[in-house]
Amino acid sequence: AEEIRAQYAETKAFLTSIVDEFLEHNKQRILIVPGNHDMSFPHSRNSMVSEADANNEQNLDLYWKGHPEIRWNWKELSFYKISNAEEYNKRFDLFREFYNDFYEGVRTYPEDPISSAECYSYADDKVTFALFNSCKRLDHLNDTADIDDDAIVSVTPKLRTTYNQGFLNIAIWHHHFYGAPRETNYLDREVINKMSHSYIQIGLFGHQHISQIAEFYGGDLALGESADNQRVLLISSGTLFGGKKELPDGYKRQYNVIEVASENGEAKIEIHVRED
Question: How far apart are CA 72 and CA 60, in angstroms?
Answer without folding.
Answer: 9
